[in-house]
Amino acid sequence: MLNLLWLVPFMPLAGFLILTASEGRLPRAYVPWIGAGSVGLSAALAASLAFELLALAPEARVFRQTLWHWMAAGDFGVDFAFYLDALSLNMLLVVTGVGFLIHVYSAGYMADDPSMARFFAYMNLFVFAMLILVLADNLPLLYLGWEGVGLCSYLLIGFWYEKPENGYAARKAFVVTRVGDTAMALGLFLMFSQLGTLDIQEAMARASTQWPAGSALPTAAALLLLGGAVGKSAQLPLQVWLPDAMAGPTPISALIHAATMVTAGVYLIARTHALFALAPEVQTLVAAIGAITLLMSGFSALTQTDIKRILAYSTISQIGYMFLALGVGAWSAAIFHLTTHAFFKALLFLGAGAVILSLHHEQDIFRMGGLRRSLPLVFWTFIVGLAALVALPFTSGYYSKHEILLSAYGSGAAGPWLWAAGTAGAILTGLYSTRLLLVAFFGTERTQAHSHYGSNIGVPLVVLAILSLAGGLAKLPLFPALPETGTEETGGSIGLATTAAPFLGVAIGYLVYRTGTASAEALLQLPGAETLRRLWFSGWGMDWVYDRLFVFPFIALARLNKGDAVDRLYQGIVALTRLGHCMLVPTQTGQLRRYAAGMLFGAALILALGVWS
Amino acid sequence: MILLWLILVPFIGGLLSLPARRWRDYAPRWLALAALAVDAVLVLTLFADTGAAPKTDWLAQVDWAWIPRFGIRFHLALDGLSLLLVGLTVFLGFAAVLCSWTEIRERQGFFHFNLLWTLAGVIGVFLALDLFLFFFFWEVMLIPMYLLIGIWGHENRAYAAMKFFIFTQVSGLLMLIAILALVFLHYQTTRSLSFDYFELLEADLYPGAARWIMLGFFVAFTVKLPAIPFHTWLPDAHTQAPTGGSVLLAGVLLKTGAYGLLRFVIPLFPGAAQDFAPVAMTLGAVSILYAAKLAFAQTDIKRLIAYTSISHMGFVLLGVFAGNAQALQGAVMTMLAHGVSAAALFMVAGALQERLHTRDMDKMGGLWTLAPRIGAITLFFSVAALGMPGLGNFVGEFLVLLGSFRVDTAITAFAAIGLILAPVYALYVMQRAFHGPASPCEVRDFGIREMGMMLCLIAATAWMGLHPQSMLAYTDARVNGLTRTLAQRGP
């Protein structure tokens, strides 16, 4: 049975190939069946593989499958090979399971789009690439999946290509993440040149024996890999692409920019945790990046008006929690939060998509209102999603976030600070979630909603809502793929404060937005509040800075040298030749005496040279 | 003998296509296809004879006396490297003929004569192991290409053709001087006059002479490659050439420069080449970035693709002079993969020009709606060009950087910035030409002939990306030989 592992990624690939080869001529009714069906088969297969793998003893839960010899040169060689252990199994289930639900949902969401086949083709390609990423046995193959998901992200953000701004957002996402990817590639080169292998398990083993902890080499390698992780996972300083990525159709935001692809960085760090454990400074940096990112994007989420951008900043913030967990060595807590976040954030995005569809592509929450009555199913599932996001007790998000915050508290000297940042972030999460809920779903109806969604939108919402509630109970055992981190019992007051923080956020949010937006506008009248709002709204102005630091100079330089300055050199030679030509032309007068005089003079000169030299 | 026929078939095919035009208008192109088909059969027999991985260095040889007085021989030989490159040449030869199918309407006989003679010259270059013979073929491929650009080119063809000719000719002269110097120095020490590759490999040069002669070869080959600062002929030539000419230029002719570096510069002057490596690697890295930046600035789609060629050839230069097994294999892979992807992109650009009568991307936009097949194919090759793993170009660039990182970390890190710039220009092409609102005109999408051709190129690119080992195995022996030479005779 485990031998069928290769079929899990290749099923969606087959779907992609069929949909592409049909060139959109396939009857529309068949397209979702191929698109969602291929991922559904993968999900079913993944589930049966999970049963088989989990039936084994924990130490035996490893399966390798080599498909073919990929490339070799000198002492370098990698295979096209998959590696299944508890960690990749967890990812496999999230990607195929949540992916399948989103595919089903897309069948309803994209039902009227003329390019539905192209949409499902890209989606299937994405799932294929993501599965390669999580199953890869070696780093170059992981990089294949890594770049593949980036490509699909580009294709799907710019799916509605008629609008140039969508294309801009798509290219921004690709190029910004490519900056991180290039760092990661250099990390791979460094690891190969020092360790002599790029097989993940082998490289980790060699690193642990060859590199002393805290020395320069593991620090450099971990830093470079971290560069790739912050790019893909939209963390500081490369988080700028994710809010704009919301230009794509909403199922894409759910699948790629919330549930799966953006967590690739978290997966990468967890996969190479042995290396990060050798670089304590880098690990501290990971935690710091997580803490700062979760706070910054929490504030940004507070000021957004576009429902998808609120969720986008919330995603950045939640991945910040995962980075925080990775930074303090709570590896399995990070993966746990990754899993629960996939459930509830997919749910929230899909709910937002249903809202947007019902309001004819209205995304401004201040033009919504009163949706509680017109879209009851969306309302109730959305509440479940928000409760999990806020981490109210007994939801899945509570278990995972609680584990992270307690691990952060107990992680040495910086622990309490990291905990404080995470808890402050939890207050912020409560605040912006309540704002979103009260403004969009309560109050007066500002736009007429037409609930035109069928069961293929409703069913995924309900299933995801159940997972968001109960997902906290179904925690896959990740040992021995990830080391056990004993969460030592922290004092009751810390646990209590951690649990209470979201309630505080919700309470503040309720007080401010209970009666509409009047009190929020009153708050903005305070001195400096408007400036702060603008700063947060623009994502702390980082786009502005990057534009001036990199984009504008590059464009200016490119314009300046459009004609290629090097060619001037050759044009100069041409000009010199021409000049010489022009100077010599007057000597050709046609007068015999001048020629005779010239010959005589020349002969005399040569003779003279011969005599004197 | 099969090697001789490889060259003679396109040679004769070219001669026959001159009178064939008088019989039927379409006869020359069918004749060209037939000649290429014969060559393809020959190449396939060679592949079949070799098996999956060559066991010996040289797979086939032809060695006859030609001008015994000067020690000049008619010496052809084929190893895994030349086999792959000859295969690429024939493969892209088909592409060049097929993409000129409707574009070339005037003087078809002479056009196909030039096309086939260029191919014959290129194949000769890849096979010749006598330096005089090599120089002969080097010139043979130049003049028909000059005519292709000069006669069937676009608006500024005379200037471009002349520029191409002068650059190549001056560099060819440098090479001739270098060849003669090498031969005479060899004669002084051994008293035997020979242009033979194997004999000259044993030449014992004092380091100063080796350096200067190496530089002569190096400049000749980097003009052809091209690399900064010898690249400025290329944007003009590629832009002005007819589509078939651009396909051959980008796909095959540039590779003769890289081939020369691998075949002659490194084995003949291992020590001098190693001393020179930091400079050459820097030139490669600068080429990658400088040309990528220039590509981004262009509005003429062919000019843009031309600059991307320079950028990708920078990886080849970097890889050849990094000189370890990964980097050398990567350079070979980049040659093959770039040959296919650049040829495909030039064919797209040619198809667009045939349909829209412009190459200016500011006048395009929204073409995806009108011609989704052209859009999808451009997308595929843009993505290949920006180094997407799973496609051929990635394998080449990855191996080059992997290898060169071991040699020089700083230059490699600098060159890796090219990985960031590649999507900047490649995706900008998609945006300007294919995305955005559709214009209300009619554009004919690719038909069966064009799709068939493109699918072959797509299959080749994907094959090189997913199973590069099937190619790398052919050059493995040669690359190991080169690394051994560098290790033994290096400083």
State the main characteristics.
heterodimer, A: 613 residues, mainly alpha, 3 domains, two-stranded antiparallel ribbon, 26 helices, 2 strands, 71% helix, 3% strand, B: 491 residues
Short description:
The complex is a heterodimer of chains A (613) and B (491). Helix content of chain A is 71%, strand content 3%.
Structure description:
- The complex is a heterodimer of chains A (613) and B (491).
- In chain A, a hairpin with a 2-residue loop joins β1 (63-73) and β2 (76-84).
- In chain A, α13 crosses α23 (529-537).
- Chain A is mostly helical and 613 residues long.
- In chain A, strands 1-2 form a two-stranded antiparallel ribbon.
- Chain A is built from 26 helices and 2 strands.
- Chain A has helices spanning 7-21, 30-54, 86-109, 116-135, 139-157, 164-195, 200-210, 216-232, 241-244, 250-259, 264-271, 273-277, 280-303, 307-327, 331-358, 371-374, 376-390, 396-409, 415-441, 455-470, 492-513, 518-524, 529-537, 542-560, 566-584, 592-612, and strands spanning 63-73, 76-84.
- The mean pLDDT of chain A is 90.
- Chain A has 3 domains: 1-278, no CATH class; 284-524, no CATH class; 563-612, no CATH class.
- Chain A is globular and about 110 Å long.
- Chain B has 19 helices and 2 strands.
- Chain B has a domain at 281-491.
- In chain B, strands 1-2 form a two-stranded antiparallel sheet.
- In chain B, 78% of the residues lie in helices and 4% in strands.
- Chains A and B meet through β1, α5, α6, α24 and α25 of A and α11, α13, α15, α16 and α17 of B.
